[in-house]
Design goal:
five-stranded mixed β-sheet, alpha/beta, about 325 residues, D-Maltodextrin-Binding Protein, domain 2, single chain, 2 domains
Amino acid sequence: MLFRRSFLCAALLGAAVTAVHAQSFPTRPIKLIIAFPAGGPTDITMRQLADNASKILGQPIVVDNKPGAGGTLPAQALQTAPPDGYTIGQIPLGVFRLPYTTKINWDPVKDISYVINVTGYAFGIAVPADSPFKTWNDFVAYAKANPGKLTYGSTGNLTSPHLTTELMAQQLGIQLQHVPYKGSADLSQAVLGNHLMAIADSTGFAPLVESGKLRVLNTWGEKRLAKFPDAPTLKELGMDIVQNSPFGIGAPKGTPPEVVKRLHDAFKQAMEEPSYVAALGRYDMLPIYMSSADYTKFAQTTFTREKALIEKLGLAKPQ
């Protein structure tokens, strides 16, 4: 009886401490790890979101850019961070592909506390303005006549731009040469310097298209993008592919639910600020909200779906 009372008291005390911690959270700056370099569309939009959320939370949110490894470094960093809400990270779609292509000792679904989904990308393929590829049909015709010689870059191996382009190539029966980069800024410089013939990327290339330096051959949403009304969607080109690659924010496994809720509520409010919607609008991105529960379900579903894509493209690691 004494033991049971002691155990009950300890449990109640622990719950009280957790509740007090959640009510006072945060009491110091929060670190938000972003999967791509400074200056690209992800960085610019997420910094605006973080700035909005910091005003709501009453503490700075410090952005830490960790590009590379197909956008999976923030998720990996969460595996060793304390589960206290002071380290959070962007979770791109590539995180759900990682176990199928790389040996890791953690589970993308079970070992991350999913806080909130905030947006997704608008993608497309672009070429230099002086490229001989005036249309997507020109691109495909050259690739068919010159197998493996048409070079394109993306923001990394196994990212959505890489895999979606390879899925296109598979459907069209063409072979392309893929060159991975760490982010949109590096990728844009490479194509402008004639190191690549094309890029598959989010619409971080929009300013270069608007200034007449690049031309968009296709886009990957359900509908044409307002910024590029002349660029057909993949579905219009005969491919049953839509890709907007939703992404959001995760915290370490075991982060107290009260802290997750505090973060969720702050970032949801931050998403609704006109400044964030305007930042997304620069790249034809839209708010894509998922609650913590819905984002967790999305992670489970996506994890299963991405396995099928990896296997279809023949990229799964040997078991």
